[in-house]
Design a protein that fits this description.
Elements lengths: L1 H32 L4 H34 L7 H12 L18
Pfam family, one: DivIC
Keywords: Cell cycle, Cell division, Coiled coil, Membrane, Transmembrane, Transmembrane helix
Protein name: Cell division protein FtsB
């Protein structure tokens, strides 16, 4: 009888500590690796950084296209730009022409 009480006095706190430790471990694991955990937060920050860089590139490209379209507006058409775009689009070249197409500054 005394052995049983002693065994209960030891096993019940050990069991409670084990359950408490497993509950804390569960929450710690999901705080690190869960859908809203620290790993997910790092991944979201990385994606935001990449999308910000992509947005800056697209803004620069948009500004370049705005500049180029401004050159061919009806009020003031730049003949060289118009001819360059027409030749590039239509693929027309005279037999004695030497044409060098340079890429735009945005790398396209």
């Amino acid at each position: 009888m005394v052995k049983r009480k002693r065994l209960r006095a030891i096993l019940i706190p050990v069991f409670l500590y084990a359950v408490s430790a497993s509950v804390v471990g569960y929450f710690l694991f999901h705080a690190q690796n869960g859908a809203r955990g620290l790993e997910a937060k790092r991944e979201f920050k990385r994606q935001i950084y990449e999308k910000t860089i992509e947005l800056e590139k697209l803004k620069a490209e948009h500004a370049e296209w705005d500049r180029r379209t401004e050159l061919v507006r009806a009020e003031r058409i730049d003949a060289d730009i118009l001819e360059e775009e027409a030749r590039k689009t239509l693929g027309l070249v005279h037999e004695n022409d030497v044409i060098v197409f340079l890429g735009s500054p945005s790398g396209r």
